[in-house]
Amino acid sequence: MSSRRAFMRSGAMALFATGIAGGIPAFITRAAAAGMPPAPYKKNKVLVCIFQRGAMDGLMAVTPFTDTELKKARPTLFMDPTNGAGKLFDLDGQFGMHPSFASLHPFFADKRLAIAHGVGSPNTTRSHFDAQDYMESGTPFSKSTSSGWLNRAVGLMGHDASPFRAVSITGALPRSLYGSQEALAISNLADFALQTKGNPMAANLTAGSFEELYEQTSNRLLNRAGKESFEALKMLNVNDIKNYQPVAGVVYPNSPLGNSLKQIAVLIKMNIGLEVAFAESGGWDTHFNQGTLNGVFARNVRDFSDSIAAFWNDMSGYQDDVTLMTMTEFGRTVAQNGTGGTDHGRASCSFILGNDVQGGKVYQQIGSLAKDQLEDQRDLPVTTDFRSVFSGVANKHLSINNNGILFPKWEGKALEIIR
Amino acid sequence: MKFAKGILFCLVIIATFGFSSLVDDPIPYKKFGYTPQQAAARLLDRFSFGAKPGQVDAVVNMGLENWLEQQFAANLPNIALEKRLSNFKSLSLSNDTIVNTYLNAGQVIRLATRKGIINRDSIKGDPKEYREQVRVIMEQEGYKPILELHRELVNQKVLSAAYSNNQLQEVLTDFWFNHFNVSVTKNQCQQYVYTYERDAIRPNVMGKFKDLLLATAQHPAMLEYLDNASSVSIKNQPRANMAAPRNARGLNENYAREVMELHTLGVDGGYTQADVTTVAKALTGWTVMPLAKDAPARNLLERLNPAQLERRGFVMKGDFLFRADQHDNEPKTILNKNFPANGGYQEGIDVLTMLAEHPSTAKFICTKLATRFVSDTPSASLIKNMVKTFQSTDGDIKAVLRTMVYDPAFWKKSVSHEKVKSPFEMVISAVRATNAQVIQPFQLFNWCTKMGQRFYYYQAPTGFPDRASNWINTGALLNRMNFGLAFASQKIPGVRMDLAALNNYHEPESAIDALTVYSNILLPQRDHAANIKRLIPLVNDDAVEEKISKAATVDKTAEQMILDKGTKNMLSQVVGIIIGSPEFQRK
Fold first, then answer.
1. Topology annotation, domain A43-193+236-406
2. pLDDT of amino acid B520
3. Of B373, B402, B408, B371, nearest in space to B386 by CA
4. Domain with CATH 3.40.720 in chain A
5. Cys-Cys link to A217, which of A162, B34, B86, B582 (CB 3.0-4.6 A)?
6. Which chain A residues touch B583 with a CB distance below 8 Å?
7. pLDDT of residue B407
8. Residue A332 and residue B175: Cα distance in Å, rounded?
């Protein structure tokens, strides 16, 4: 296995040898001299995950508007499809999408967007950090799991070892991607170069020195990250990123999520072996004045919706290979709190977008929101385990069929959400 | 003689402060095979932002124990730093002045509305077209943009860390700010972040944990950041003559949860959801004095008689305000302890004191300190000893740190150089190691941001995770290498250094010689032999000459850069490689 991986890499390197600072670095020349033929990466299926950090209010994003209990519990936050200009998009007579989803709603209408509602973890923690940790490790009752579920997914696919197989457009590697498979985190792909200005030989000497030193270090983390950096460095031409033009008519919001999805689009189109991509969206912890038609929640939804819609339209020609899934650590209280917001709750909802998604449907088993039906008399109960949703997507879209490894100690059923 | 003097100094300190356990034994580094120089380098690695050239010997000469006590005392004069900070405008301002000078977004909108620049109906529109008009009005009225405040906040942190003689105080300020994180990204608290660090954090970093907890709990930055300022009892309607804070209509449990999960007990510290809600009730009425001149409540409050307010149970402490009329007066049970009805202001103090003194807190705080100062996975025995000290000294932070340094676990070879520097630590240690002059500190902040640490802007109340795996990944690592190269080649604007001076202007004879000499200057008391050996074939490659001349035909400056090995360029390249190397990332 390891020699095959090395072979694949050298081949790819020769193919992508655009060099550091214009010259051809010695280590690339060495690889090329070994006579490795170029081996481009096979076009793989790609899963794009967006983590909504802070716990999105699923009941405001996709509202069960026929439930009168909700209206009572949220006197100033409740909206419905008949509520004038700010009315919800009626999805099925029971659920309605927030009006700021205007750019995403059409995908629901043409059955490429599915919504899973009442989704959450069996662990009742209402700590952001614990709940994120459990959702990302995929083991809601075990803190000691060292790997993340997406890293295990990459391992289970077992494809060519591109350094770009799993990429997170974030400053730090997310918990979901911890593990034995190589995964790469960078907040801005345009930074992906050694900035050695001036003459190519000096640049190569510097790059070579760094590579040797990182190979030498006894610190395993630095050693591994160094190796991955240099491999990735050899494959990526920063100019391709800087000069990237999306499909005509597509404008990404100039927001962290918009920029992240744009960079993921670049990587997909570069065909460098991307299989799992990860991005984050922040600001969902709406304890205070979350607003309805306008306000912080509406602004967040608009950015979230517009970013995803821009990405999807930019994927024109690639859409058959790409599925996008969103997740959030938990939902928020059914009742609004004393400050026009909502506190930490339990279940929320997830969006799944793709050509092979059985969309146009809200997958849910949500019951009455009467107080005595709620979890701890306050929160939307979890009726769909997040692992049902995640494995439903991974099994079909990524053809992973070992849920025992993907989600250890879980015996639930995958949600049939993808054809 | 030196040794005797050291002992005497220790005895004086011990007599003064009443410590008893450390009289007999020196810091136990010898048992673990450290020379005094290596031990001094280790102390400087962990308790300062990095050794300055020559500082290892200075610490050895004064005695490691004495150096540590001097850092605990944190009273060394700081003339050079004060001079650098002397033209900062915001550093000595009160919250009141800041709030009424550096306007936040809400105040700017209110001002612009008052001045007729924007009308009430268009507040939600695009503010861009009004921006220039707003800027002019603000200047005329003597207001300043809040970004100026943020810039000074960032700059003072960089300069203090780089140049303060009381290094441990700065290291701990960084640590405790991160523990009790607040963020300028939140509109409601951004004006208070500087005074938070100045008044609530820095003076308390080596005192009792309880004082630190209370100081943060009552500071406007924390009250606003975690929403407690607007959390009121649903049982007591606000009195008609006191305007309620905007939209304050009931309970908000944000702070109550985080104070237990993140500040004291830890997530597994044994509290329930019911405890969270009840702590929130106990802290209802804990809010901020209305400071903005145009806040209606300010006028009302100024008209009221303080004695009368006091009789009604109100408490005013600086900018902290306890509003008895918004406090939940019911009896409460928190962590199985009963709090009788009508506890008022004191109830909140009692709850926070109980949290500070809880055994889970001792364990949680000691683990976090050991993680910062010893290793990402500190040993159970070390934590146990630190917890013992924490509990027997009423949470005395200095005493806990002293236990840590005198514990064998601190000196195990397996934990030496195994902590990875945060981007801020890495950048500041480069400044200190090279005696660099920082004229534009903000440039270094921009580099920290690229490497994953945009300090003061971390949105979540956890603060930055203190784990190597959080800092080290492909992108961040490349930026660390790029920082080393840009820094040493003086391409970072406003950051200057004289690399030749570090070696007393002795020119290294070759690249390998430069690497050897400067590795020892920048990273004193470490073993560089293996690294240097590794680079020899690369630098001495026979083909290099040929390749260089080929390259030089294209680029004349190339020839000078490589062949003329005594030039500044070669030196800056070598130093850049050292700063970007894995060894420099470790402490």
1. Alkaline Phosphatase, subunit A (3.40.720)
2. 96
3. B402
4. 43-193+236-406
5. B582
6. 213, 217
7. 96
8. 31
* CB contact set of B237 (below 8 Å; sequence gap of 6+): none
For residue A95, what is the DSSP state?
E
Distance, in Å, from the CA atom of B232 to the CA atom of B533, rounded to the nearest integer, reads: 67
What pLDDT does residue A31 have? 37
Token pair for residue A5?
A: 């991986």
Q: Write B509-515 long-range contacts (CB < 8 A, 24+).
A: B509/B565, B510/B539, B510/B565, B511/B539, B511/B565, B511/B570, B511/B574, B512/B536, B512/B539, B512/B540, B514/B565, B514/B570, B514/B571, B514/B574, B515/B574, B515/B577, B515/B578
Question: How is residue B198 written in tokens?
Answer: 């100045």
Report ipTM for this prediction. Answer: 0.83
Is the CB of A210 inside 8 Å of chain B's CB atoms?
yes
Q: Does the distance separating the beta carbons of A184 and B475 come in below 8 Å? A: yes
Cα distances (Å, whole numbers) of residue B227 to A340, B134, B284? 12, 29, 11
| Cα A134 from Cα A140, distance rounded (Å) | 5
Q: Which two tokens stand for residue B157?
A: 């942190």
pLDDT for A355 beyond 90: yes
State the pTM of this model: 0.83
d(CA B217, CA B280) in angstroms, rounded, equals 12
Q: What is the pLDDT of residues A359-417, one digit of tens each?
A: 999 999 999 999 999 999 999 999 999 999 999 999 999 999 999 999 999 999 999 99
CB B538 to CB A233 under 8 A?
A: no
Work out the pLDDT band at A34, boundaries 50, 70, 90: very low
pLDDT at residue A16, rounded to an integer: 36
Q: Cβ contacts (< 8 Å) between B544 and chain A: which residues? A: 201, 205
Confidence of residue B547 (pLDDT cuts 50, 70, 90): low
B511 or B222: which carries more pLDDT confidence? B222
Q: Is A195 on the interface with B (CB under 8 A)?
A: yes
**Statement: residue B261 has pLDDT above 90:** yes
Domain coordinates of chain B in residue numbers?
A: 2-48+59-73, 82-208, 226-357, 359-415, 423-585
Q: What is the pLDDT of residues A182-227, one digit of tens each?
A: 888 888 888 788 877 666 777 778 888 999 999 999 899 999 999 9
Residue B25: how many other CB atoms lie within 10 Å: 9
Percent of chain A predicted with pLDDT > 90 = 67
Q: A166, exposed or middle or buried, with CB in 10 Å at 0-12, 13-18, 19+?
A: buried
B34: Cβ–Cβ under 8 A, 6 or more apart, which residues? Answer: B42, B411
For helices A256-270 and A296-314, angle between their N-to-C axes, nearest 10 degrees: 10
Nearest CA in chain A to B552: A199
Is B413's Cβ below 8 Å from some Cβ in A?
Answer: no
Closest by Cβ to A225, choosing from B452, B472, B586: B472
> CA-to-CA distance for B193 and B147, rounded, in angstroms?
12
**Residue A282 — very low, low, confident or very high, per pLDDT cuts 50/70/90?**
very high
pLDDT at B180 over 60: yes
Q: CA-to-CA distance for A17 and A21, rounded, in angstroms?
A: 11
Count how many residues are written for chain B: 587
End-to-end C-alpha distance for chain B, whole angstroms: 32
Q: Report the C-alpha gap between B217 and B194 in whole angstroms.
A: 16
Distance of alpha carbon B431 from alpha carbon B447, whole angstroms: 13
Q: How far is CA B197 from CA B76, B104, B156, B204, B462, in A?
A: 20, 19, 11, 10, 16
Query: Residue A349 pairs with which residues in a beta bridge?
Result: A117
Q: How many Cβ atoms sit within 10 Å of the Cβ of residue B301?
A: 18
Q: Which residue has the tokens 């600072």?
A: A21
Which letter does DSSP use for residue B200 in this model? I
Q: Contact, B225 vs B183, CB < 8 A? A: yes
